[in-house]
Every structure is written in C-alpha cells, then in structure tokens.
Amino acid sequence: MAKNVLVLVRHGESEWNKLNLFTGWKDPDLTAKGVAEARRAGQLLRAEGIKFDIAFTSALTRAQHTLQLILAELGQTGLATIKHKALNERDYGDLSGLNKDDARKKWGEAQVHTWRRSFDVPPPGGESLKDTAARTLPYYNEKIWPEVKNGRNVIVAAHGNSLRSMIMQLDKLTPEQILKVELGTGVPIVYRLDADGGVIEKRALAA
Description:
The chain is an alpha/beta fold. It contains 8 helices and 6 strands; from the N terminus they run βααβαβαααβααββ. Strand 5 and strand 6 form a beta hairpin. The chain has helices spanning 15-18, 32-48, 61-74, 100-107, 109-117, 129-149, 160-170, 175-178, and strands at residues 5-10, 54-57, 81-83, 154-158, 188-193, 199-204. The protein has a single domain, classed as Rossmann fold.
C-alpha cells in the first residue's frame, strides 16, 4: 500500500449549497445528495485500497459529517481525527446566509464578483482567499504535512477555499491560477508527496 498519501476532499453538498446561500462559518448539515456524495467518495477510496492513519477536518458539521461517512465506507470509523477551525471555510462576513442572487441585487454584480473571485479583496466583515490561506497554510505546514512526511496516509475533509489554499501551495499555483480551480463536492483528490512535500502524483477520483 502506498505511503505518504494525502487526500483532500471537499464536503458533500450542504443544505445551503442547495439553496444558493453564502455559507462560510455558518453550520448547515449535508443534504441527501451530499450524504450520497460522501459515501461515494468513501467507496472510491476503498476501491483504491487506501487506508488512513489519521484524519483532519474543520470545526463545521458538513465537513465532519462527510468525513464520518467516508470513514464508515472504509471500515475506519475509529480513526484518530483532529478537528480545527483553521480548516474552516472562508468567512463570508456580511454575505453569510444571503442568497447569492439577492447579494448581487444589493451590492451589484461587479462588486459581488470581486468579493467572490479576487484573491485579496474580502467581503465586509469577512475573509479573502488570501486571509483564508494565512490561517490554513500554517496549520497544514505545522500539523498535517509532518504526518505525511513521517510516512502516514492522511485525509483532510474540509471546504472549497481552505482546500484551495493547500492546493495553491502543493501545485505551486499563482493567486491568479488558484482562482480558476473549482473543487467538486465529495470528490477526493489523491496526492502522493515526496520527502520535501513536492507532488509525485495527483489524481481526482471521479465517480
């Protein structure tokens, strides 16, 4: 079995994803579709023959629930799991809980697009992707990467923007490039890393 494997997986569809709401640090659970996506992710990882030594997830229910469902499919429900808010989704501040179409009506299409798709412009009271990376990457470098470096297989169940932060570092992407990276819900991304944290192999497991 391969070692030094890092799997990143965005949570399955949440109740607020379905309603087209800005979610951020708000805490809705998965929809029935999200539950199915998480289970499917576990089945895909099982088919790969991957067993994990440790898991990391955010402080939010949708990521934790996704991880639980994946581990159940793998027969690893007792796996050591570390939960930390450093892996939380980007905080959308005043946009949190708003329908994205209503936000466009209130602030204008161009302004909402800037908040959503720029690297370093935060929404009012919230975080930019740059801000999110400033808390996620130190946690990755200090807590997650040392586990992989020591030959362990690690799964991280988190959110679109906290995972984007890690992918930007792993794939050596510029701020402009990372903005174009879209992460599907419940799609495991499997990395194999070398002793310096460089990427030997990267694959997304599609259903």
